[in-house]
Amino acid sequence: MNTKHCGIDALRRDLTKRFIDQLLVYLAVQGHSDDSADEDEPPPTLPHATSIGHGAAVKALVADFAMDKLAAGQIRLLSQPDSLCHVLLLRQWDSASYLIVPFSRFPLPATDEELLLNDGRTDYLAVLQLWNARSIHALFLRRSWLVDTLTDSELTTARQALAFVQTGQVLPEEILSHMALPIQSADDPRLDYKAATLDRFAALDSADFAWMEQCDHFAQHAAWRSSATTPAGRENTIQPVDFSRRRRLRVAEQELQYAAAGAVQRSPCWRVPLPANQALPAMAHGDLATTGPAVDAVYARYYGGPFAALQPDQYRTLLWDLSDCDLPMGSYDALFIHSKRRTLLASGYARVDEEDSSVVLSDWLPCEHPPLASAADLTILLCETAVL
Predict the structure, then answer these.
(1) Residues 6+ apart with CB under 8 A from 182
(2) Is 80 within 8 Å of 204 (Cβ atoms)?
(3) Please, are residues 357 and 330 in contact by the beta-carbon 8 Å criterion?
(4) Which residues have a Cβ under 8 Å from the Cβ of 264 and sit 6 or more positions away?
(5) Fewest CB within a 10 Å sphere: which of 132, 304, 305, 372?
(6) Is the alpha carbon torsion for 127, 130, 132, 135 positive or negative?
(7) Span 160-170, mean pLDDT?
């Protein structure tokens, strides 16, 4: 008899039993709350930090979104959906998306498709739902807070465990001992747990899928008409206006800078008062023209050396400066459009504050791109945060 194997089976049975006990208690408390709660009654205490409202948790976090430096091994708290969702960035999926694995709200693994990282982590950052892995576009993932980072060893273990779940790859017994037993019965309460978990991500999955469809479409089709009128007969308001010429301060200095850099180092940059995942369809249908000058234009100065003969590299990050432009302070999603073809090439983000005013191209679409001869070949749309 393999006593070591029997010992691992016993550990996994114990994990499974303890999880089901916790789940049944949680469901009982939740059911009691649904039956008896009134407006003045406080919500029941949940197993971990989800006991506080997501809005309250967001307000308690003073730091801004960690929009830059998405990287494998990071643990992030998503700002959308409206429930506390911590996820691990397992690896970069393609040039614009990441493979993420959500964390369970419970401190113990539910099945053989969940992994208990170790016993020393915070309860709600202890168990990875490997069965719930998905790819998410950086447009949604970037609007999050960086809360922790896995060690290299933990990240390797997580990748091994995911390979086991997806392909049946053999796992070392020390990793298997941190996973519960599989579901083998149709009345197992863990099935309801998995269904409820998927519901939490339904809106995010739907928005991400719709955005990927937009990317596919607008990578091939123009995002707005080149003619001067929209189908409604209104004048198209998408006109590149240089706001820097309207400023009374440093005008002469700016003109010298632009003359020295050359027009090829500047990109038209429009501020669009719509979420990033609504802007392109609105432009394509001419909806922005219905409210007058809905698109504000400025120019961004490209940083990074000569732009000539730049060939898009799917993992290359590009930077523009907005410090010469009068833009409202805040953070924006950025979409990068080929100026002549008016097709979508990439996305990114922008910050405008007292210390930094810049636009970053960070997420090339994973497709063939037309060549870019100058910064003027890219038009930048600064949009509101993408919404679910």
Answers:
(1) 111, 112, 113
(2) yes
(3) no
(4) 307, 308, 373, 374, 375, 376
(5) 305
(6) positive
(7) 94
Q: Which amino acid makes up residue 104?
A: S
The secondary structure element, H or E, covering residue 89 is strand 86-92
Helix (H) or strand (E) holding 250: none
DSSP 118-162: -TTS-GGGSEEEGGG-EEEEHHHHTSEEEEEE--HHHHHHHHHHH
Q: Where are the alpha helices (DSSP H) in the chain?
A: 3-36, 54-60, 138-141, 152-167, 173-176, 189-200, 202-218, 251-261, 276-284
Q: What are the b/e assignments for 163-201, b being 16+ CB within 10 Å? A: ebbeeeeebeeeebbbbbbebeeeebebeebbeebeebb
Rounded Cα distance, 181 and 177, in Å: 10
Query: Three-class SS of residue 331?
Result: strand
The pTM assigned to this predicted structure is 0.80
Task: Give 266-321 pLDDT, tens digit per residue.
Answer: 899 988 989 999 999 999 988 775 443 456 667 899 887 666 545 555 667 889 99
Q: Tell me the chain's radius of gyration from C-alpha atoms.
A: 25
